[in-house]
Amino acid sequence: MNTRTNQTNIYAIIPEELWNGISENPAKDLAVIVNEKIIQDIIPVHMVPNDINTIKLPGCTLLPGLIDAHVHYSSVMGPAFLLAGVTTIRDVGNDLHWILKERSFNESNNDSGPSIVCCGHLQDGPVKYWPNMGRANINADSIRSSVKEHINAGVDAIKLYTSLDVEMVYAGIDEAHKLGKPVTAHLGECSVEDAISAGLDCIEHLSGCRPAWANSTQKEDDALIDLLLKHNVAIDPTLVVFDRVAKGLDLVFERDNSRNWVHPSHLHYWNEYQLFIRTNPLKVQQEILYLKRFLLRAHQSGVTTAMGTDTPFPRLAPGFSLHDEIASYVDAGIKPVDALRSATSVNAKVLKKESVIGKIAKGFDADFVAVKGNPINDIRDITKTELVIRKGMVISQLKMQKDLKSTFDNIPNDAITLDFFDRIK
Ligand SMILES: [Zn+2]
After folding, report:
1. Residue 174 CA to ligand 1 centre (angstroms)
2. What is the rounded CA–CA span in Å between residue 254 and residue 244?
3. Which of 118, 256, 260, 300 has the largest count of CB atoms under 10 Å?
4. What is the CATH number of the domain that holds 81?
5. Distance from the CA of 321 to the center of ligand 1, in angstroms?
6. Ligand 1 centroid vs 170 CA: distance in angstroms?
7. CA of 76 to the centre of ligand 1 (A)
8. What is the CATH number of the domain that holds 14?
Protein backbone atom coordinates (compact mmCIF):
# COMPACT_ATOMS: atom_id res chain seq x y z
CA MET A 1 0.00 0.00 0.00
CA ASN A 2 1.11 3.51 -0.74
CA THR A 3 1.55 5.25 2.59
CA ARG A 4 2.75 8.68 1.43
CA THR A 5 1.33 11.00 4.04
CA ASN A 6 1.12 14.20 2.01
CA GLN A 7 -1.98 13.05 0.16
CA THR A 8 -5.13 14.95 1.02
CA ASN A 9 -7.17 11.75 1.27
CA ILE A 10 -5.24 10.76 4.38
CA TYR A 11 -6.04 12.48 7.64
CA ALA A 12 -5.88 11.96 11.38
CA ILE A 13 -8.75 12.23 13.86
CA ILE A 14 -7.56 13.22 17.32
CA PRO A 15 -10.35 12.91 19.89
CA GLU A 16 -10.06 13.43 23.63
CA GLU A 17 -11.05 9.78 24.09
CA LEU A 18 -11.61 6.89 21.72
CA TRP A 19 -14.05 4.03 22.33
CA ASN A 20 -13.49 1.23 19.85
CA GLY A 21 -16.87 -0.53 20.02
CA ILE A 22 -15.60 -3.34 22.27
CA SER A 23 -13.46 -2.17 25.21
CA GLU A 24 -14.80 -1.56 28.71
CA ASN A 25 -13.50 2.04 28.75
CA PRO A 26 -12.45 4.62 26.18
CA ALA A 27 -8.72 5.20 25.65
CA LYS A 28 -6.85 8.50 25.69
CA ASP A 29 -4.00 9.81 23.53
CA LEU A 30 -4.94 7.81 20.43
CA ALA A 31 -5.35 9.08 16.88
CA VAL A 32 -7.15 7.36 14.03
CA ILE A 33 -5.52 7.57 10.62
CA VAL A 34 -8.10 7.51 7.83
CA ASN A 35 -7.05 6.68 4.28
CA GLU A 36 -9.90 7.28 1.81
CA LYS A 37 -12.79 5.14 3.11
CA ILE A 38 -10.81 2.95 5.47
CA ILE A 39 -9.20 3.13 8.91
CA GLN A 40 -5.52 2.79 8.08
CA ASP A 41 -4.21 2.74 11.63
CA ILE A 42 -4.70 3.71 15.24
CA ILE A 43 -1.57 5.26 16.71
CA PRO A 44 -0.44 7.30 19.72
CA VAL A 45 -1.11 11.00 19.18
CA HIS A 46 2.59 11.92 19.34
CA MET A 47 3.27 9.67 16.33
CA VAL A 48 0.85 11.50 14.01
CA PRO A 49 2.97 12.82 11.10
CA ASN A 50 3.23 16.62 10.98
CA ASP A 51 2.36 16.84 7.30
CA ILE A 52 -1.15 15.37 7.34
CA ASN A 53 -4.48 17.05 7.93
CA THR A 54 -5.93 16.58 11.39
CA ILE A 55 -9.40 16.83 12.85
CA LYS A 56 -9.02 17.70 16.52
CA LEU A 57 -11.93 16.91 18.81
CA PRO A 58 -11.12 18.21 22.30
CA GLY A 59 -13.64 17.18 24.95
CA CYS A 60 -15.12 14.55 22.64
CA THR A 61 -15.35 10.78 22.55
CA LEU A 62 -14.97 9.13 19.15
CA LEU A 63 -17.11 6.01 18.64
CA PRO A 64 -17.77 3.69 15.70
CA GLY A 65 -20.69 4.84 13.54
CA LEU A 66 -23.94 3.58 15.09
CA ILE A 67 -26.07 0.82 13.55
CA ASP A 68 -29.87 0.57 13.65
CA ALA A 69 -30.88 -3.06 13.09
CA HIS A 70 -34.60 -2.47 12.48
CA VAL A 71 -35.59 0.12 9.91
CA HIS A 72 -38.01 0.49 6.99
CA TYR A 73 -36.00 2.87 4.85
CA SER A 74 -37.13 5.79 2.78
CA SER A 75 -34.53 7.94 1.04
CA VAL A 76 -35.95 11.00 2.85
CA MET A 77 -34.59 9.40 6.06
CA GLY A 78 -30.95 9.42 4.89
CA PRO A 79 -29.93 12.86 6.20
CA ALA A 80 -31.40 12.29 9.68
CA PHE A 81 -29.65 8.96 10.11
CA LEU A 82 -26.29 10.47 9.21
CA LEU A 83 -26.77 13.54 11.40
CA ALA A 84 -27.55 11.32 14.40
CA GLY A 85 -24.39 9.29 13.82
CA VAL A 86 -26.14 6.22 12.38
CA THR A 87 -23.93 5.15 9.48
CA THR A 88 -25.46 1.70 8.84
CA ILE A 89 -29.00 0.39 8.96
CA ARG A 90 -30.59 -3.00 8.44
CA ASP A 91 -33.78 -2.63 6.43
CA VAL A 92 -36.17 -5.40 7.50
CA GLY A 93 -39.03 -4.89 5.05
CA ASN A 94 -39.28 -2.88 1.86
CA ASP A 95 -39.76 -3.24 -1.87
CA LEU A 96 -37.08 -5.68 -3.02
CA HIS A 97 -35.75 -3.88 -6.10
CA TRP A 98 -36.16 -0.39 -4.66
CA ILE A 99 -34.12 -1.14 -1.54
CA LEU A 100 -31.39 -2.86 -3.58
CA LYS A 101 -31.12 0.29 -5.69
CA GLU A 102 -30.94 2.49 -2.57
CA ARG A 103 -28.26 0.21 -1.13
CA SER A 104 -26.09 0.64 -4.25
CA PHE A 105 -26.78 4.37 -4.41
CA ASN A 106 -25.68 4.91 -0.81
CA GLU A 107 -22.70 2.64 -1.38
CA SER A 108 -21.24 5.15 -3.84
CA ASN A 109 -22.69 8.37 -2.37
CA ASN A 110 -21.31 8.66 1.15
CA ASP A 111 -23.46 11.58 2.25
CA SER A 112 -26.78 10.44 0.76
CA GLY A 113 -27.62 8.15 3.66
CA PRO A 114 -26.34 5.23 5.72
CA SER A 115 -24.92 1.95 4.44
CA ILE A 116 -27.80 -0.47 3.99
CA VAL A 117 -28.09 -4.15 4.84
CA CYS A 118 -31.41 -5.36 3.45
CA CYS A 119 -33.97 -8.15 3.41
CA GLY A 120 -36.17 -7.00 0.53
CA HIS A 121 -39.88 -7.67 1.02
CA LEU A 122 -41.00 -9.07 4.32
CA GLN A 123 -42.16 -12.63 3.67
CA ASP A 124 -45.76 -12.93 4.76
CA GLY A 125 -48.48 -15.59 4.52
CA PRO A 126 -51.33 -15.79 1.97
CA VAL A 127 -52.79 -12.40 2.97
CA LYS A 128 -50.04 -9.82 3.30
CA TYR A 129 -50.43 -7.25 6.05
CA TRP A 130 -48.38 -4.51 4.32
CA PRO A 131 -49.39 -4.11 0.67
CA ASN A 132 -46.07 -2.63 -0.52
CA MET A 133 -43.50 -3.88 1.98
CA GLY A 134 -44.91 -7.40 2.11
CA ARG A 135 -44.76 -10.40 -0.19
CA ALA A 136 -47.66 -12.88 -0.01
CA ASN A 137 -46.77 -16.57 0.07
CA ILE A 138 -49.49 -19.19 -0.22
CA ASN A 139 -47.52 -22.21 0.95
CA ALA A 140 -44.08 -23.63 1.75
CA ASP A 141 -43.14 -23.96 -1.92
CA SER A 142 -43.99 -20.37 -2.71
CA ILE A 143 -41.93 -19.07 0.19
CA ARG A 144 -39.00 -21.19 -0.97
CA SER A 145 -39.15 -19.61 -4.40
CA SER A 146 -39.58 -16.11 -2.97
CA VAL A 147 -36.57 -16.55 -0.67
CA LYS A 148 -34.54 -17.87 -3.61
CA GLU A 149 -35.61 -14.91 -5.77
CA HIS A 150 -34.64 -12.47 -3.01
CA ILE A 151 -31.24 -14.01 -2.39
CA ASN A 152 -30.47 -14.28 -6.10
CA ALA A 153 -31.37 -10.61 -6.41
CA GLY A 154 -28.74 -9.83 -3.76
CA VAL A 155 -30.36 -9.33 -0.33
CA ASP A 156 -28.22 -9.73 2.80
CA ALA A 157 -30.83 -11.49 4.94
CA ILE A 158 -34.42 -12.70 4.96
CA LYS A 159 -37.24 -11.31 7.10
CA LEU A 160 -40.19 -13.55 7.95
CA TYR A 161 -43.48 -12.01 8.98
CA THR A 162 -46.40 -12.68 11.27
CA SER A 163 -48.90 -14.77 9.34
CA LEU A 164 -46.49 -17.50 8.24
CA ASP A 165 -47.38 -20.88 9.72
CA VAL A 166 -44.85 -23.34 11.10
CA GLU A 167 -44.41 -25.13 7.80
CA MET A 168 -43.70 -21.92 5.92
CA VAL A 169 -41.29 -20.69 8.62
CA TYR A 170 -39.37 -23.96 8.34
CA ALA A 171 -39.29 -23.72 4.54
CA GLY A 172 -38.19 -20.05 4.57
CA ILE A 173 -35.36 -20.65 7.04
CA ASP A 174 -34.24 -23.84 5.33
CA GLU A 175 -34.07 -22.19 1.91
CA ALA A 176 -32.27 -19.08 3.22
CA HIS A 177 -29.69 -21.14 5.11
CA LYS A 178 -29.08 -23.38 2.09
CA LEU A 179 -28.22 -20.20 0.20
CA GLY A 180 -26.06 -18.90 3.07
CA LYS A 181 -28.21 -16.04 4.38
CA PRO A 182 -29.42 -15.37 7.94
CA VAL A 183 -33.10 -15.05 8.84
CA THR A 184 -34.84 -12.69 11.21
CA ALA A 185 -38.52 -12.76 12.07
CA HIS A 186 -41.45 -10.89 13.48
CA LEU A 187 -43.30 -13.99 14.68
CA GLY A 188 -47.07 -14.36 14.86
CA GLU A 189 -48.65 -17.68 13.92
CA CYS A 190 -45.51 -19.73 14.45
CA SER A 191 -44.36 -20.25 18.04
CA VAL A 192 -40.94 -19.04 19.12
CA GLU A 193 -39.99 -22.61 20.07
CA ASP A 194 -40.79 -23.87 16.58
CA ALA A 195 -39.01 -20.96 14.90
CA ILE A 196 -35.90 -21.49 17.02
CA SER A 197 -35.80 -25.20 16.32
CA ALA A 198 -36.14 -24.36 12.62
CA GLY A 199 -32.89 -22.38 12.98
CA LEU A 200 -34.06 -18.75 13.20
CA ASP A 201 -31.12 -16.36 13.67
CA CYS A 202 -32.78 -13.27 15.17
CA ILE A 203 -36.14 -12.33 16.72
CA GLU A 204 -37.63 -8.86 16.17
CA HIS A 205 -39.71 -7.11 18.87
CA LEU A 206 -39.39 -10.13 21.21
CA SER A 207 -42.37 -11.33 19.18
CA GLY A 208 -43.68 -14.72 20.25
CA CYS A 209 -41.50 -14.60 23.38
CA ARG A 210 -44.40 -15.04 25.81
CA PRO A 211 -42.43 -14.80 29.09
CA ALA A 212 -40.99 -11.48 27.92
CA TRP A 213 -44.45 -9.91 27.76
CA ALA A 214 -45.87 -10.98 31.11
CA ASN A 215 -45.21 -11.09 34.81
CA SER A 216 -43.34 -14.36 34.34
CA THR A 217 -41.41 -16.33 36.89
CA GLN A 218 -37.64 -16.59 36.65
CA LYS A 219 -38.12 -20.22 35.66
CA GLU A 220 -40.32 -19.25 32.69
CA ASP A 221 -37.84 -16.57 31.62
CA ASP A 222 -34.93 -18.97 31.95
CA ALA A 223 -36.57 -21.67 29.84
CA LEU A 224 -36.73 -19.23 26.92
CA ILE A 225 -33.31 -17.73 27.63
CA ASP A 226 -31.76 -21.22 27.66
CA LEU A 227 -33.36 -21.94 24.30
CA LEU A 228 -32.05 -18.66 22.83
CA LEU A 229 -28.58 -19.41 24.15
CA LYS A 230 -28.53 -23.04 23.06
CA HIS A 231 -29.45 -22.10 19.47
CA ASN A 232 -27.47 -18.84 19.44
CA VAL A 233 -30.50 -16.70 18.54
CA ALA A 234 -30.15 -12.91 18.79
CA ILE A 235 -32.92 -10.66 20.07
CA ASP A 236 -33.77 -7.20 18.71
CA PRO A 237 -36.37 -5.89 21.19
CA THR A 238 -37.17 -2.45 19.63
CA LEU A 239 -38.41 -1.06 22.96
CA VAL A 240 -38.95 2.43 21.55
CA VAL A 241 -41.67 1.42 19.11
CA PHE A 242 -43.72 0.07 22.02
CA ASP A 243 -42.85 3.10 24.11
CA ARG A 244 -44.41 5.33 21.44
CA VAL A 245 -47.51 3.15 21.28
CA ALA A 246 -47.80 3.29 25.06
CA LYS A 247 -47.25 7.02 25.37
CA GLY A 248 -49.01 8.26 22.26
CA LEU A 249 -50.35 11.31 24.02
CA ASP A 250 -47.14 12.25 25.80
CA LEU A 251 -46.68 15.90 24.90
CA VAL A 252 -42.91 15.60 25.07
CA PHE A 253 -43.02 14.34 21.48
CA GLU A 254 -44.69 17.56 20.33
CA ARG A 255 -41.71 19.49 21.68
CA ASP A 256 -39.15 17.03 20.35
CA ASN A 257 -36.63 18.78 18.07
CA SER A 258 -35.87 15.58 16.19
CA ARG A 259 -39.25 16.10 14.47
CA ASN A 260 -37.48 18.71 12.35
CA TRP A 261 -35.66 15.82 10.68
CA VAL A 262 -38.83 13.97 9.72
CA HIS A 263 -40.47 14.36 6.31
CA PRO A 264 -43.87 16.15 6.48
CA SER A 265 -45.66 13.15 4.95
CA HIS A 266 -44.32 10.91 7.72
CA LEU A 267 -45.26 13.49 10.37
CA HIS A 268 -48.74 13.55 8.87
CA TYR A 269 -48.95 9.79 9.21
CA TRP A 270 -47.72 9.97 12.80
CA ASN A 271 -50.56 12.36 13.58
CA GLU A 272 -53.22 10.36 11.83
CA TYR A 273 -52.29 6.83 12.73
CA GLN A 274 -55.04 5.38 14.86
CA LEU A 275 -52.74 2.99 16.69
CA PHE A 276 -52.59 5.28 19.68
CA ILE A 277 -56.27 5.36 20.34
CA ARG A 278 -56.90 1.72 19.47
CA THR A 279 -54.36 0.38 21.89
CA ASN A 280 -54.78 0.17 25.62
CA PRO A 281 -51.93 2.46 26.68
CA LEU A 282 -51.75 1.25 30.28
CA LYS A 283 -51.45 -2.34 29.15
CA VAL A 284 -48.57 -1.48 26.83
CA GLN A 285 -46.88 0.65 29.51
CA GLN A 286 -47.00 -2.37 31.79
CA GLU A 287 -45.70 -4.65 29.04
CA ILE A 288 -42.70 -2.38 28.50
CA LEU A 289 -41.66 -3.00 32.08
CA TYR A 290 -41.89 -6.74 31.48
CA LEU A 291 -39.92 -6.41 28.24
CA LYS A 292 -37.20 -4.43 30.01
CA ARG A 293 -37.02 -6.99 32.79
CA PHE A 294 -36.68 -9.80 30.25
CA LEU A 295 -34.15 -7.90 28.17
CA LEU A 296 -31.91 -7.34 31.19
CA ARG A 297 -32.15 -10.95 32.26
CA ALA A 298 -31.45 -12.22 28.73
CA HIS A 299 -28.54 -9.83 28.32
CA GLN A 300 -27.01 -10.78 31.68
CA SER A 301 -27.35 -14.45 30.71
CA GLY A 302 -25.31 -13.86 27.56
CA VAL A 303 -28.03 -13.72 24.89
CA THR A 304 -26.83 -11.77 21.84
CA THR A 305 -28.63 -8.45 22.20
CA ALA A 306 -28.97 -6.52 18.95
CA MET A 307 -30.58 -3.07 18.80
CA GLY A 308 -33.15 -1.57 16.45
CA THR A 309 -35.98 0.95 16.47
CA ASP A 310 -38.58 0.30 13.75
CA THR A 311 -38.27 3.87 12.48
CA PRO A 312 -40.18 5.55 10.81
CA PHE A 313 -43.12 4.26 12.84
CA PRO A 314 -44.80 7.03 14.87
CA ARG A 315 -42.58 9.30 16.89
CA LEU A 316 -39.40 7.49 15.88
CA ALA A 317 -37.24 10.03 14.10
CA PRO A 318 -34.61 8.28 11.96
CA GLY A 319 -31.30 8.03 13.80
CA PHE A 320 -32.34 10.03 16.83
CA SER A 321 -34.68 7.22 17.90
CA LEU A 322 -31.63 4.94 18.16
CA HIS A 323 -30.31 7.27 20.88
CA ASP A 324 -33.62 6.70 22.65
CA GLU A 325 -33.31 2.93 22.28
CA ILE A 326 -29.79 3.09 23.72
CA ALA A 327 -31.18 5.05 26.69
CA SER A 328 -34.00 2.51 27.08
CA TYR A 329 -31.44 -0.30 27.43
CA VAL A 330 -29.70 1.69 30.15
CA ASP A 331 -33.07 2.35 31.75
CA ALA A 332 -33.59 -1.42 31.79
CA GLY A 333 -30.42 -1.80 33.86
CA ILE A 334 -27.92 -2.53 31.10
CA LYS A 335 -24.56 -0.76 31.47
CA PRO A 336 -24.06 2.16 29.04
CA VAL A 337 -21.03 0.45 27.49
CA ASP A 338 -23.10 -2.68 26.79
CA ALA A 339 -25.93 -0.64 25.25
CA LEU A 340 -23.32 1.02 23.03
CA ARG A 341 -21.84 -2.38 22.13
CA SER A 342 -25.33 -3.48 21.02
CA ALA A 343 -25.56 -0.41 18.77
CA THR A 344 -22.10 -1.02 17.27
CA SER A 345 -20.08 -4.27 17.43
CA VAL A 346 -22.96 -6.57 18.41
CA ASN A 347 -25.25 -5.23 15.69
CA ALA A 348 -22.40 -5.61 13.20
CA LYS A 349 -22.14 -9.27 14.14
CA VAL A 350 -25.90 -9.82 13.82
CA LEU A 351 -25.76 -8.16 10.38
CA LYS A 352 -22.78 -10.42 9.43
CA LYS A 353 -20.68 -7.31 8.87
CA GLU A 354 -18.38 -7.74 11.86
CA SER A 355 -15.23 -7.59 9.73
CA VAL A 356 -16.02 -4.14 8.25
CA ILE A 357 -18.19 -2.07 10.63
CA GLY A 358 -19.03 -1.69 14.33
CA LYS A 359 -15.46 -1.22 15.52
CA ILE A 360 -12.69 1.33 15.30
CA ALA A 361 -9.99 -1.02 14.11
CA LYS A 362 -7.40 -1.23 11.35
CA GLY A 363 -8.96 -2.05 7.97
CA PHE A 364 -12.53 -1.25 9.06
CA ASP A 365 -14.79 1.28 7.31
CA ALA A 366 -14.01 4.84 8.40
CA ASP A 367 -17.49 5.34 9.97
CA PHE A 368 -17.51 7.43 13.13
CA VAL A 369 -19.59 9.55 15.43
CA ALA A 370 -17.90 11.96 17.82
CA VAL A 371 -19.93 13.22 20.77
CA LYS A 372 -19.18 15.87 23.36
CA GLY A 373 -18.44 14.25 26.72
CA ASN A 374 -18.28 10.53 27.39
CA PRO A 375 -21.41 8.40 26.85
CA ILE A 376 -19.83 5.47 28.70
CA ASN A 377 -20.01 7.59 31.86
CA ASP A 378 -23.24 9.39 31.00
CA ILE A 379 -25.38 7.84 28.29
CA ARG A 380 -27.11 11.17 27.62
CA ASP A 381 -23.91 12.32 25.92
CA ILE A 382 -24.76 10.05 22.97
CA THR A 383 -27.11 12.82 21.78
CA LYS A 384 -24.35 15.47 21.78
CA THR A 385 -23.17 14.81 18.23
CA GLU A 386 -20.19 16.94 17.21
CA LEU A 387 -19.05 15.21 14.04
CA VAL A 388 -20.14 12.32 11.84
CA ILE A 389 -17.94 10.64 9.25
CA ARG A 390 -19.19 8.02 6.81
CA LYS A 391 -16.63 6.05 4.79
CA GLY A 392 -14.08 8.75 5.40
CA MET A 393 -16.35 11.65 4.42
CA VAL A 394 -17.19 14.34 6.96
CA ILE A 395 -20.97 14.85 6.93
CA SER A 396 -22.08 18.45 6.65
CA GLN A 397 -25.09 19.40 8.76
CA LEU A 398 -25.91 22.22 6.36
CA LYS A 399 -25.97 19.91 3.36
CA MET A 400 -28.11 17.36 5.23
CA GLN A 401 -30.60 20.11 6.07
CA LYS A 402 -30.73 21.21 2.43
CA ASP A 403 -31.02 17.63 1.17
CA LEU A 404 -33.94 16.91 3.49
CA LYS A 405 -35.77 20.19 2.77
CA SER A 406 -35.45 19.63 -0.97
CA THR A 407 -37.75 16.59 -0.60
CA PHE A 408 -40.49 18.40 1.33
CA ASP A 409 -42.66 19.36 -1.65
CA ASN A 410 -43.15 15.76 -2.76
CA ILE A 411 -44.57 12.69 -1.10
CA PRO A 412 -41.95 9.95 -1.32
CA ASN A 413 -43.00 7.14 -3.61
CA ASP A 414 -41.53 4.29 -1.56
CA ALA A 415 -43.04 1.24 0.10
CA ILE A 416 -43.06 2.48 3.70
CA THR A 417 -44.66 5.82 2.81
CA LEU A 418 -47.26 4.19 0.55
CA ASP A 419 -48.07 1.66 3.27
CA PHE A 420 -48.42 4.44 5.84
CA PHE A 421 -50.95 6.19 3.63
CA ASP A 422 -52.74 2.92 3.01
CA ARG A 423 -53.18 2.57 6.80
CA ILE A 424 -54.65 6.01 7.37
CA LYS A 425 -56.81 6.36 4.27
ZN1 LIG B 1 -40.59 -3.28 11.37
Report:
1. 22
2. 12
3. 118
4. 3.20.20.140
5. 14
6. 21
7. 17
8. 2.30.40.10
- Enter the pTM of the model: 0.97
Domains in the chain: how many in total? 2
What confidence score (pLDDT) does residue 162 get?
97
What is the CA(183)–ligand 1 centre distance, in A? Answer: 14
CA of 186 relative to ligand 1 center, distance in Å: 8
- Is 422 domain-assigned? no
Going through 45-107 in order, the beta strands assigned E by DSSP cover 53-64, 66-71, 86-91
pLDDT average, residue stretch 142-162: 98
* pLDDT digits 0-9 by tens, 23-70: 999 999 999 999 999 999 999 999 999 999 999 999 999 999 999 999
**Mean pLDDT over residues 322-338, rounded?**
98
Confidence of residue 8 (pLDDT cuts 50, 70, 90): low
399 vs 419: CA distance, rounded Å: 29
Distance 296 CA to ligand 1 centre (A): 22
Contacts of 152 (CB under 8 A, 6+ apart): none
Indicate whether 407 belongs to any domain. no
17 and 147 assigned to the same domain: no
**241 CA → ligand 1 middle, Å:** 9
Which pLDDT tens digit goes with each residue over 296-325?
999 999 999 999 999 999 999 999 999 999
Residue 109 sits at the vertex; the CA angle it makes with 107 and 110, to the nearest 5 degrees, is 85
Q: How far is Cα 113 from Cα 104, in angstroms, rounded to an integer?
A: 11
Identify the domain containing residue 55 by its residue range.
Answer: 1-63+360-394
Q: Are 215 and 128 in a shared domain?
A: yes
Residue 85 alpha carbon to ligand 1 centre in Å: 21
- Environment of ion ligand 1 (residues, CB < 5 A): 310
User: Does residue 425 register a pLDDT over 50?
Assistant: yes
Q: Say how many CA atoms lie within 13 Å of 15 toward its Cβ.
A: 26
